């Protein structure tokens, strides 16, 4: 393999034996590039067959390199990959996501056109397992999607963050890569710095990628609990990044907690729970009649919405206590000038 690498793909992995081979097939099967491709698999100490799968593929394909991430966490893995990257462009690809064959070529072309610092595609959920399929179904609704506009297909649009994505390596190096204090929401924190420096981030429809959601309510709850905590940290460090949709789950959790109080004191909380329940039932009903959707799927959607919203909102409250309350961010959302 020559040293004239066009795109370096960074794939952080930790116990991804179930999906890694397919993910690397998608990464190595990219078409339309006018230069070399390298794929950097950064392993955080997997205990399953992830490492042996990656090593076997690397032995058969010189474009693949297996790197170690002793710190185990995703931002550390991304920085390990960035330091090893030789490409003019860098792409992050996840090990449980399927990217279209023209993903990298479209990203390179869009970055070369100028006026943007980061590109990515819509994040489309594709279930792999009963609960994963139901979570994917929930994520097609507005109640499941929240304010993450990059979760829906559509025309090219400017976004405040994105799913995985691509940059010029020089852009990432200028921002010193990913902040390793952000164990979760590292992409959102990096995006905040990119935008604060005047860079635009766009979601390109031709780069739509399908990812596999969690396959249990417990796993989903842990994921959203962690998301909420580090979104609070991002809002504290970058108040301008808070959207109203970020404020709603912690506000709902705080209000719903008062529902157990007697009399008028608990009335606002009970009304909030009732309104949320009605919205969850309506959102569930909105997907009735779709191909393959069963009555059992519809019956479980409110539980999935509750897991997402309550875990995320409680995580945000925990993150506010852990890292400090993002007061300025809330004031901005409320339209209060200081």
What sort of overall outline do the alpha carbons produce when their principal axes are compared? globular
Q: What's the pLDDT, averaged over the residues?
A: 94
**DSSP helix fraction:** 40-55%
| Poorly predicted segments | none
| Major beta sheet, strand line-up | 3-2-1-4-9-6-10-8
Describe this structure in words.
The chain is α/β, with parallel strands linked by helices and 338 residues long. It contains 13 helices and 11 strands. The chain has helices at residues 20-28, 50-60, 74-84, 103-113, 130-138, 142-145, 169-174, 186-196, 217-237, 244-256, 267-285, 295-323, 327-334, and strands at 5-13, 36-43, 64-68, 89-92, 97-98, 118-121, 123-125, 157-158, 163-168, 201-203, 209-211. The strands form 2 sheets. An 8-stranded mixed sheet has the order 3-2-1-4-9-6-10-8, sandwiched between helices. A 3-stranded mixed sheet has the order 5-11-7. Helix 9 (217-237) runs parallel beside helix 12 (295-323). The longest helix has 29 residues, at 295-323. It is globular and about 70 Å long. It starts with a strand and ends with a helix. The mean pLDDT is 94.
Task: Spell out the blueprint of helices and strands.
Layout: E1 5-13, H1 20-28, E2 36-43, H2 50-60, E3 64-68, H3 74-84, E4 89-92, E5 97-98, H4 103-113, E6 118-121, E7 123-125, H5 130-138, H6 142-145, E8 157-158, E9 163-168, H7 169-174, H8 186-196, E10 201-203, E11 209-211, H9 217-237, H10 244-256, H11 267-285, H12 295-323, H13 327-334
Parallel strand pairs: 1-2, 1-4, 2-3, 6-10, 7-11
Antiparallel strand pairs: 4-9, 5-11, 6-9, 8-10
């Amino acid at each position: 393999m020559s040293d004239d690498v066009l795109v370096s793909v960074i794939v952080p992995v930790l116990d991804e034996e179930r999906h890694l081979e397919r993910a690397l097939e998608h990464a190595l099967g990219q078409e339309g590039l006018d230069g070399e491709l390298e794929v950097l698999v950064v392993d955080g100490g997997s205990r399953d067959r992830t490492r042996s799968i990656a090593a076997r593929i690397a032995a058969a394909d010189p474009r693949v390199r297996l790197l170690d991430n002793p710190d185990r966490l995703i931002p550390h893995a991304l920085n390990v990959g960035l330091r090893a990257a030789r490409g003019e462009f860098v792409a992050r690809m996840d090990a449980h996501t399927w990217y279209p064959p023209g993903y990298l070529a479209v990203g390179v072309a869009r970055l070369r056109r100028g006026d943007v610092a980061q590109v990515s595609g819509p994040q489309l959920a594709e279930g792999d397992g009963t609960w994963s399929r139901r979570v994917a179904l929930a994520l097609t609704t507005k109640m499941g999607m929240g304010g993450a506009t990059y979760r829906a297909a559509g025309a090219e649009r400017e976004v405040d963050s994105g799913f995985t994505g691509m940059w010029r390596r020089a852009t990432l190096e200028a921002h010193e890569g990913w902040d390793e204090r952000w164990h979760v929401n590292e992409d959102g924190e990096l995006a905040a710095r990119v935008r604060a420096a005047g860079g635009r981030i766009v979601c390109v429809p031709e780069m739509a990628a399908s990812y596999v959601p969690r396959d249990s309510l417990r796993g989903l709850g842990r994921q959203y609990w962690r998301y909420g905590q580090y979104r609070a940290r991002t809002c504290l460090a970058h108040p301008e990044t808070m959207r109203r949709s970020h404020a709603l789950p912690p506000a709902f959790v705080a209000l719903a907690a008062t529902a157990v109080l007697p009399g008028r004191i608990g009335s606002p909380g009970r009304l909030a729970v009732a309104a949320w329940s009605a919205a969850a039932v309506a959102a569930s009903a909105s997907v009735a009649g779709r191909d393959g959707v069963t009555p059992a799927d519809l019956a479980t959607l409110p539980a999935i919405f509750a897991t997402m919203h309550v875990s995320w909102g409680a995580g945000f409250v925990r993150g506010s206590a852990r890292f400090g309350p993002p007061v300025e961010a809330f004031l901005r959302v409320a339209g209060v000038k200081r």
